[in-house]
Amino acid sequence: MTAAGKDTTTVVVERRVAASPGRVWEAITDLPDLPRMLSGVERVEILTEGVFGEGTRWRETRRMLGKEATEEMTVTACEPPDRYVTLAESHGMRYVSEITLHPAAGTGPAAGAGARPPATLLRMAFSAQRADGRAPGPLARLLTRVGTRAVARALAKDLSDIAATVESRV
User: Fold this and answer.
1) Region 112-130: what's the mean pLDDT?
2) Does residue 83 register a pLDDT over 60?
3) Contacts by 149-158 with C-beta closer than 8 Å and gap 24+?
4) CA distance 166 to 143
5) pTM metric for this prediction
Protein backbone atom coordinates (compact mmCIF):
# COMPACT_ATOMS: atom_id res chain seq x y z
CA MET A 1 0.00 0.00 0.00
CA THR A 2 1.27 3.46 -0.81
CA ALA A 3 -0.14 6.86 -0.06
CA ALA A 4 1.05 10.24 -1.22
CA GLY A 5 -0.22 13.12 0.82
CA LYS A 6 0.48 16.73 0.03
CA ASP A 7 3.88 16.63 1.71
CA THR A 8 4.41 13.05 2.95
CA THR A 9 4.67 9.78 1.05
CA THR A 10 4.04 6.55 2.97
CA VAL A 11 4.59 2.95 1.93
CA VAL A 12 3.23 0.10 4.07
CA VAL A 13 3.99 -3.61 3.64
CA GLU A 14 3.01 -6.62 5.76
CA ARG A 15 4.13 -10.23 5.97
CA ARG A 16 3.14 -13.21 8.05
CA VAL A 17 6.16 -14.88 9.68
CA ALA A 18 5.86 -18.43 11.06
CA ALA A 19 7.48 -17.59 14.39
CA SER A 20 6.54 -15.85 17.62
CA PRO A 21 6.84 -12.05 17.87
CA GLY A 22 9.68 -12.54 20.37
CA ARG A 23 11.74 -14.56 17.89
CA VAL A 24 11.07 -12.07 15.11
CA TRP A 25 12.01 -9.18 17.43
CA GLU A 26 15.32 -10.84 18.29
CA ALA A 27 16.17 -11.13 14.59
CA ILE A 28 15.21 -7.62 13.50
CA THR A 29 17.03 -5.94 16.40
CA ASP A 30 20.26 -7.93 15.92
CA LEU A 31 22.00 -5.12 14.05
CA PRO A 32 25.31 -6.94 13.40
CA ASP A 33 23.35 -9.71 11.63
CA LEU A 34 21.37 -7.41 9.30
CA PRO A 35 23.73 -7.79 6.31
CA ARG A 36 23.43 -11.59 6.54
CA MET A 37 19.64 -11.47 6.95
CA LEU A 38 18.66 -8.69 4.52
CA SER A 39 19.89 -9.16 0.96
CA GLY A 40 19.54 -5.41 0.31
CA VAL A 41 21.87 -4.42 3.18
CA GLU A 42 25.57 -4.47 2.38
CA ARG A 43 26.94 -3.35 5.74
CA VAL A 44 26.01 -1.92 9.13
CA GLU A 45 28.13 0.26 11.39
CA ILE A 46 26.78 0.44 14.94
CA LEU A 47 27.33 3.89 16.45
CA THR A 48 26.07 3.32 20.00
CA GLU A 49 26.81 0.75 22.69
CA GLY A 50 24.38 -1.31 24.71
CA VAL A 51 21.12 -3.07 24.01
CA PHE A 52 18.79 -2.09 21.17
CA GLY A 53 16.41 0.63 22.30
CA GLU A 54 15.51 4.29 22.09
CA GLY A 55 18.62 6.23 21.12
CA THR A 56 20.33 3.32 19.32
CA ARG A 57 22.09 4.60 16.18
CA TRP A 58 23.66 2.87 13.21
CA ARG A 59 24.74 3.50 9.62
CA GLU A 60 23.17 1.17 7.11
CA THR A 61 24.50 0.83 3.58
CA ARG A 62 22.14 -0.53 0.93
CA ARG A 63 22.11 -0.87 -2.81
CA MET A 64 18.99 0.81 -4.20
CA LEU A 65 18.32 1.25 -7.91
CA GLY A 66 21.86 0.11 -8.64
CA LYS A 67 23.51 2.69 -6.39
CA GLU A 68 25.02 2.41 -2.94
CA ALA A 69 23.41 4.61 -0.28
CA THR A 70 24.34 4.96 3.38
CA GLU A 71 21.88 6.39 5.89
CA GLU A 72 22.27 6.99 9.61
CA MET A 73 19.32 5.57 11.53
CA THR A 74 18.24 6.56 15.04
CA VAL A 75 15.67 4.66 17.10
CA THR A 76 13.19 7.27 18.33
CA ALA A 77 10.68 4.90 19.96
CA CYS A 78 11.05 1.32 21.14
CA GLU A 79 8.48 -0.99 22.75
CA PRO A 80 9.96 -4.51 22.79
CA PRO A 81 8.77 -6.87 21.34
CA ASP A 82 5.94 -4.93 19.68
CA ARG A 83 7.31 -1.91 17.84
CA TYR A 84 10.17 0.39 17.05
CA VAL A 85 10.51 3.60 15.04
CA THR A 86 13.61 4.96 13.31
CA LEU A 87 14.41 8.38 11.90
CA ALA A 88 16.93 9.21 9.18
CA GLU A 89 17.58 12.60 7.58
CA SER A 90 19.44 12.83 4.30
CA HIS A 91 19.60 15.01 1.20
CA GLY A 92 16.92 17.37 2.50
CA MET A 93 14.50 14.56 3.32
CA ARG A 94 13.24 13.07 6.60
CA TYR A 95 12.56 9.33 6.59
CA VAL A 96 10.57 7.58 9.33
CA SER A 97 10.25 3.80 9.50
CA GLU A 98 7.92 2.04 11.91
CA ILE A 99 8.15 -1.71 12.42
CA THR A 100 5.31 -3.41 14.29
CA LEU A 101 4.84 -7.02 15.31
CA HIS A 102 1.50 -8.57 16.26
CA PRO A 103 0.62 -12.19 17.01
CA ALA A 104 -1.13 -13.51 13.90
CA ALA A 105 -4.79 -14.44 14.36
CA GLY A 106 -5.54 -18.11 14.98
CA THR A 107 -2.05 -19.04 16.14
CA GLY A 108 -0.36 -19.90 19.40
CA PRO A 109 -1.56 -21.53 22.61
CA ALA A 110 -4.40 -19.06 23.25
CA ALA A 111 -6.06 -20.07 19.99
CA GLY A 112 -7.16 -23.45 21.40
CA ALA A 113 -6.94 -27.02 20.17
CA GLY A 114 -5.88 -27.45 16.59
CA ALA A 115 -4.37 -23.97 16.41
CA ARG A 116 -1.46 -23.31 14.12
CA PRO A 117 1.98 -22.73 15.67
CA PRO A 118 2.82 -19.18 16.75
CA ALA A 119 3.08 -16.66 13.94
CA THR A 120 3.63 -12.93 13.66
CA LEU A 121 2.15 -10.27 11.44
CA LEU A 122 5.20 -8.12 10.66
CA ARG A 123 4.36 -4.65 9.34
CA MET A 124 6.69 -1.96 8.06
CA ALA A 125 5.58 1.61 7.35
CA PHE A 126 8.06 3.94 5.65
CA SER A 127 7.34 7.66 5.30
CA ALA A 128 9.30 10.35 3.50
CA GLN A 129 8.88 14.10 3.60
CA ARG A 130 10.99 17.14 2.94
CA ALA A 131 12.96 18.09 6.04
CA ASP A 132 12.12 21.78 5.53
CA GLY A 133 8.39 21.00 5.64
CA ARG A 134 7.68 22.50 2.22
CA ALA A 135 5.44 20.63 -0.20
CA PRO A 136 7.21 19.06 -3.20
CA GLY A 137 6.72 20.53 -6.66
CA PRO A 138 5.00 18.74 -9.59
CA LEU A 139 8.17 17.01 -10.85
CA ALA A 140 9.07 15.78 -7.37
CA ARG A 141 5.53 14.40 -6.95
CA LEU A 142 5.86 12.51 -10.25
CA LEU A 143 9.24 11.08 -9.24
CA THR A 144 7.79 10.18 -5.85
CA ARG A 145 5.16 7.95 -7.48
CA VAL A 146 7.90 6.06 -9.33
CA GLY A 147 10.07 5.89 -6.20
CA THR A 148 7.29 4.53 -4.00
CA ARG A 149 7.03 1.43 -6.19
CA ALA A 150 10.76 0.78 -5.80
CA VAL A 151 10.57 1.36 -2.04
CA ALA A 152 7.55 -0.97 -1.73
CA ARG A 153 9.46 -3.71 -3.57
CA ALA A 154 12.54 -3.22 -1.38
CA LEU A 155 10.50 -3.29 1.85
CA ALA A 156 8.60 -6.41 0.72
CA LYS A 157 11.95 -8.08 -0.03
CA ASP A 158 13.22 -7.12 3.45
CA LEU A 159 10.17 -8.74 5.06
CA SER A 160 10.59 -11.83 2.89
CA ASP A 161 14.26 -12.05 3.92
CA ILE A 162 13.32 -11.68 7.60
CA ALA A 163 10.69 -14.42 7.31
CA ALA A 164 13.09 -16.78 5.55
CA THR A 165 15.81 -16.21 8.15
CA VAL A 166 13.59 -16.56 11.22
CA GLU A 167 11.63 -19.51 9.85
CA SER A 168 14.86 -21.37 8.99
CA ARG A 169 15.96 -21.17 12.63
CA VAL A 170 13.09 -23.34 13.84
Assistant:
1) 82
2) yes
3) 149/2, 150/64, 150/65, 151/11, 151/126, 152/2, 152/11, 152/13, 154/40, 154/62, 154/64, 155/11, 155/13, 155/124, 155/126, 156/13, 156/15, 157/39, 157/40, 158/38, 158/40, 158/124
4) 35
5) 0.84
